[in-house]
Amino acid sequence: MQKKVDILVIGGGPAGSVSAITARKYYPEKKILMLKSVQKGVIPCGIPYMLASLRTPEENAMGEGPLLKNKIEVVIDEAVKIERREKLVRTRNGDTYTYEKLILAIGSLPIFPPIPGINKKNVYAVYKDLTYLKKMLAEIQDVENILVLGGGFIGVEFADELSKISNGRKKIYLVEMLPNLLANSFDPEFSAQVEEKLKSQGVQILTGVRVEELLGKENVEEVRLSTGESLAVDCVILGIGAVPNTKLAQEAGLTLGKGKGIWADEYMRTIDSDIFAVGDCVGKRDFFTRKDAPVMLASTATAEARIAGANLYQLKVVRENKGTIAIFSTYVSGLVLGSAGLTEKSARREGFEIVSGEAEGIDKHPRAMPQVSRIKVKLIFSKQSGIILGGQVSGGMSCGELINIIGVAIQKRISLTELETLQMATHPYLTSAPTMYPLVLAAQNTVVE
User: Fold this and answer.
1) What would the CATH number be for the domain defined by 334-444?
2) Are 398 and 375 in contact (CB under 8 A)?
3) I need a surface site. Which of 29, 221, 334, 412 has the fewest CB within 10 A?
4) pTM for this entry
């Protein structure tokens, strides 16, 4: 079968869906079709929470309602070849689709480190496929000794959720080769809070340690570590990140960036003006240095998708992509952490001359209010210009939006002085006191010599 469409989207994750819906808004007369290879996708950020926080894995399914509402046709099939000259895509089922504009939202693939035994049974990568994840989660429920490899966001969140279903029966190990958990996104004093929280829940944390070999017959039964120690395990969860899925693009002759993602300009156009790339498959550039940045976030992907969807035929909206500020948040059994922009460590590594300020407080006022949580804020500024370069927060649920305020400040290049004089809405149940607002205090506590 050959089918002609105006806008063809390959990939059904957040980036693909948002780009298709945005394209419908700006080009209502166009015929839009989405090809996706996974019949039942999931909300990527919710994957760890399918273990305990959600009642059933299906509650994290990514539905097609918004696509159907916007009259976007969805076909379950895998694109296997792009013929750019003919503007044609061939699929696994033998069908072909011709297009005017093509959006690649083909995502990423889990990293499989070169560890002997990595291909044994009961070693689970994290795929965004509901059918696969349901099988994986069901099998995890029945085992006693689990090792999570990788102390980034995925690994930390899986370890947290595993501790909730343990009931003292399971041994949960979290192994990270760097000195701290979440080390690429937080300074050590924030990482320490996560480590303390997980340890209090019975998770055994091994930092500065590598996995050297996975041992066993067909199934993994034992893990040998760089310390010489061996651990008896029933399964391993790979939480060490992902790499851009670029095979389809490369075979079509599209260019990759130095970070190995598909190269795209500030309007998400590849070297082919009729092909756009968004989400995990496309290369990212740091907001401050313009260096390639290995950041894969649904929030970044959907921002790129909106830029692409709006500008497919003409540059209707000047919303160019200035780079990623790498804004993250996570939740570990009541502890919320957020990070945006540069940490103190990464800023110094890049050669920025910086100053920093910190403040601690509570998220309601007075402190006798119910369900009060402590908040810690750290802000990083350029010493000479006073422009904010980054920020980190920890505390209760309010930190989830507090880090977004910091993210806006970074994108708008707000200065230390502007944050010192920030006007904010406050209420005893909702916020810190206006006299002791941690974001303002952190700016005030920054010493510029």
Assistant:
1) 3.30.390.30
2) yes
3) 29
4) 0.92
